[in-house]
Amino acid sequence: MCTTNTIGICHFFIPAVAKIKVQENVIVDGMTRITAQKKKKVYKAGSWSRGERRQPIVYLEEGGDCDCRPLDDPHNEGSSFMVMGKHRNGKNIVEYFQLYDKKNKELKKALR
Questions:
Q1: pLDDT tens digits for the chain (112 residues)?
Q2: Helix, strand and coil percent figures for the chain, each rounded to 5
Q3: Does the predicted model carry a pTM greater than 0.85?
Q4: CATH of domain 11-111
C-alpha cells in the first residue's frame, strides 16, 4: 500500500511507528524494500527485534508497480519519513508512510 495522504488511521492500533531517513529502496519480489539509515527515531517498536530497531527494514506491498513520488523525488533525498506498519509473514509491512513535516499538527498529535 502506498499512501501519502493525511493520517486517517488511529496509530494506537499500529504496532510499529518510526521516523526514518531512507538509505536505499530496492524492488524485491514485487515489493519495495526500504532500508533506513542508522539515524532514526522509533516511537513504538511493536514486535520489532533489537536488530530491527537499530536499522529498520520495511516493505511496501505492491511497491513494484506503485508510483511512490516521495521516495523517488531527488529533492527528498536526506528527508525524514514517518512510517507506520505491522509485522506480517516475517516482514515489516508498511501500512502508512508520509514525508515528515515538523509543522504538521495532525502528525504531532498522532505521535503523542
A1: 444 444 444 444 567 788 888 888 888 888 888 888 887 888 777 777 787 778 788 888 877 677 667 777 766 777 888 888 888 888 888 888 888 888 888 777 766 6
A2: 20, 40, 40
A3: no
A4: 2.40.50.120
